[in-house]
Amino acid sequence: MRLLLATAGSRGDVEPFVALAERALAAGHEVRLVVPDNSGVEMGDLDVVSMGSTTRG
The pTM is what? Predict the structure, then answer.
């Protein structure tokens, strides 16, 4: 299954989506994650696309 996950916000908003994406990837799914620039979260080997915005804080 191909999944596109998108979230906006700061680290607390992004981290749950990263965990979900990593879990789905480990289960054999194709995952693309769309997040704001500079969220402060380590994305590892995930396919990440910039939302084109930055977080404040």
Answer: 0.84
